[in-house]
Amino acid sequence: MHPNLITATPSAYTYPLLIKQLLVNSLSLHGDQEISYRGEMRYSFRDFRRRIGRLASALSALGARHGTTVAVMDWDSHRYLESYFGIPMMGATLFTVNVRLSPQQILYTLNDSDAEIVLVHAEFVPVLEQIKDGLRGVRQIVVMADGHDVPSTILDVAGEYEALLGKASPEFEFRDFDEQTKAATFYTTGTTGDPKGVSYSHRDIVLHALVAATSLGAQKEGQRLHREDVYMPITPMFHVLAWGLPYVAVMLGLRTVLPGRYVPDTLLRLRESERVTFSHCVPTILQMMLQASHESMQNLSGWKMIIGGSALSPVLCEAALARGIDVFAGYGMSETGPIVSLAQLPPGFTAADPRDEVRMRCSPGRPVPLVDFRVVDEEMHDMPRDGKGQGEIVLRAPFLTQGYFKKPEASEELWAGGYLHTQDIAVMAPDGFVQIVDRIKDVIKTGGEWVSSIEVEGLIAEVPGVQECAVIGVRDEKWGERPMAFVVRKPGMPIESFAIRERLLRHVDAKRISKFAVPASDRIAFVSEIPKTSVGKINKKALRELSA
Questions:
Q1: How far is the C-alpha of 285 from the C-alpha of 416, rounded, in Å?
Q2: 161 and 48 in a common domain
Q3: For the segment 121-134, what is each residue's pLDDT rounded down to a tens digit?
Q4: Catalytic: which of 82, 116, 274, 335?
Q5: Backbone angles phi, psi at 308, to 5 degrees
Q6: How many Å apart are CA 347 and CA 473, to the nearest integer?
Q7: Domain limit, last residue, from 150, 174, 201
C-alpha cells in the first residue's frame, strides 16, 4: 500500500456518493417543506420519502432488482420526481423516455435500454399499444392514471401507480452500493444513426448537483438560487434529468412545484398562485409565456430563469427583462450532466451599454466549478483567450458521461484524446466568458427539439424528381432554428416545394418525424448544385453563408 494513502479504521463509514444522500439534509432540516403537483396535490418532504419507499417496494414486488432498467413516460409530475429518487436508490436504472420521439424511435430506445418495467401516463398508453409487438424485454407495465380511471387497453397492465403504492410498504431499505452504479439513462438524437444512450452514475448526479448548487448559490444577487426560492422546472423531466436541477432543489429543501404538461396559461397560473421564483426552460417556451403574460398583463418580476437547449436570442432576452424576468443562459449537452457553464453576471458588473449586458446574459457564460473548459484547435492546442480565436469546446469534469450505451466507437470519438468533444465552435474572452460562433454537428435545434438533418435529407431524397438535397438549420426568432432545404432537381423534372412538404407531412402523420422537421415553403430553395468540400462532402458552412 502506498504510504501516502489514508487508511480507514475498520469501523469507519466510507460515505458513497449515492442519490439517497441528497435527501439526508433536506429530510432532517426541511421535512415539512412542500412538493405540489399542478396546485392540486400537495405533500411534505417526509411524505415524499415515504412514497419513495412505497415505489421501491412496489417495483420490487414486480421483480425489479439491482440493475433492472425501469422506464418512465410521464409529464413533469410528483411521480416523476419520486422516480428520480426511488428507482436509482434501490440500485435499478431510471430510463427517462423522450415521449416526443416517434413511436418507432421510442420502441428502439426501450429495446436498446433493456427496459423491463414501464411506468406510463395514461396519455401515452396508445403509443405502447402501437409498438407492443416489437417490445423485446418489457415484461411489466404500470399505468399512471393521474386521478382518472385506468384506460381500457390491449396491454397486460400490472396495476395502477397509486393503487400499487397504496398497497406497498414505505419501509424499503435503501442499502449502500458502489457509487459508480448506473443511476439514470436517456437517449439523445444526433445527425446520424439511431438515438444514442447516455448514462450517469450516482456519483455523476451527486457531483453535478453539488457543482450546480455551488455556482448558482455563489452569486451575491441576481441569477442565483437560494433556500427561500420556490422552484418549478419547465424543462421536460425526460430531457437530461431536467438539467439535474430537481436534484438540486430537493438537496437544498426548496419548495417544489411540478406543472404537469406545459401549457403557457397553466405555467403562468402556477407561477402566480405558487409564488414561483426559479425556473429553467428553452427559448420557445419562454416566448410563449411572454406572449401569454402580455395578453393577461401578468407581472413576472422576481422570476429567475435559466435558458438552455438552444441559443437565447438578444431580442427574446430583452423582452424577458422588460417583463421583469431575471433571465440568463446556461450551456451544456446531454453528455455533460448537462450544466458546464452559466451566464451569471460577474461581481460588480455595470454595463456602459445595455446591449453589453444582454449579450453577456445570452452567452454560454463562464465555466462552473470543477469543469476543465478549453477552446482548442485541431491539434488540441488552447486558443488565445482574446475573444477572437475560434476552436472547439472540449471538457473534463467529474460528472460527464463516460460513453454511449452499447456504442464503443461513438464513445471513443466523443472522448478522443481524453477530453469530451462538444463539436461546438467558440471563442473565449479574457474574463472567461464564452461565445459559441458555430457548430460542427449539423443537428437542428427547433422548438426545444432536435431534428436530424441527415434524416430529413433522406426523406426528401425519396421524393420523385429530387436529385440531391442538403438540410441545415437557420435562425428563427420563435423556434430558435428551423430547417432549410437546398434541393437539386433531376433534369426535366419540374418538382416544386409543395410536393416536398406534402411528402414530409405524411411522415409527420405517420409519426416518423416531428412537425418541426418540415421546412416552410420559403425555406425550400432549388439550386443548380450543392457546394462540396475538397473531399466531396456537402459544405454546410457554405450553405449557411448562402442562407444568411
A1: 35
A2: yes
A3: 999 999 999 999 99
A4: 335
A5: -150, -170
A6: 36
A7: 201
Domain at 415, CATH number: 2.30.38.10
217 and 127 in contact (C-beta within 8 Å)? no
Candidate list 109, 188, 284, 336, residue with the active-site label:
188
Q: Please check whether residue 474 is in contact with residue 482, taking contact to mean a CB–CB distance below 8 angstroms.
A: yes
| 450 is an active site residue | yes
Q: Evaluate whether residue 500 is within a structural domain.
A: yes
Residues 460 and 513 in one domain: yes
Q: What burial letters (b/e) apply to 220-254, b meaning 16+ CB within 10 Å?
A: eeebbbeeebbbbbbbbbbbbbbbbbbbbbbbbbb
Task: Give the DSSP per-residue string, 172-206.
Answer: -------TTSEEEEEEE--SSSS-EEEEEEHHHHH
Note if 256 is an active site residue: no
CB atoms near residue 318 (< 10 Å): 17
Q: Contact 305/282 with Cβ under 8 angstroms?
A: no
- What does pTM read for this prediction? 0.82
Reported as a single tens digit per residue, the pLDDT across 486-523 is 998 988 888 888 899 999 999 999 887 888 889 999 89
Q: CB–CB of 202/180 below 8 Å?
A: yes
